[in-house]
Amino acid sequence: MSFQRFHDTWFEQLRHLVHQLSQAPRPPTTEEDYHHLHQLVNKVMSHCAEYYRVKSLAIKQDVLSFSTAQWTTTLERSLHWIGGWRPTTVFHLVYTESSILFESRVVDILRGFRTGDLGDLSPGQFRRVSELQCETVHEENAITDELSEWQDSASDLVGLCGDFDEKMERLARILNKADSLRLKTIETVVELLTPQQAAEFLVAAAELHFGIHAWGVEQDRQRGNA
User: Where is the DOG1 domain (predicted)?
Assistant: First the structure.
């Protein structure tokens, strides 16, 4: 199976999983609801891990195809950072969703009622999210610098100097580092959230993904008909 076929199948399976997650009772009112929600969150996370496992294997076979990522739309590729979404996007999404939910329930929260959702993050959770954001920015910058160094050596390829295979292997390592950071970031954030908060975060992240993809498909269709 080509990676594009795998991606398309994986994407549709993600839609199904996210639909299940969005239909689960929130907040969970029984122990059964709690375990069901936790199980669904774990299924989505396992699905994400499987994507990067397969992608890592595919990168070994044809690293340059992941620079163009033809299975994504032109719009999606314009937003990419080293072959995929920028890890720090996770934190912007958490802050945005938390702010929206907090504002919609601010009266109840100020009265002392706990909503348990993303708008009800504890001071400790906010502190940890902020720490993770700083750590992720540092790691992003380090990987960006590594890619810049690789690109600066492009003259060696033009001049047929050095080992082409070694340079492709180095590029593959950079792409895998970027993907590892993407997966680590989302896993770490989900771990510090409650199952309800994690479900809300994953649904919001997936809807953002689906929305950008759909808009990108429409834009590509219009450009193709122009």
Answer: 1-222
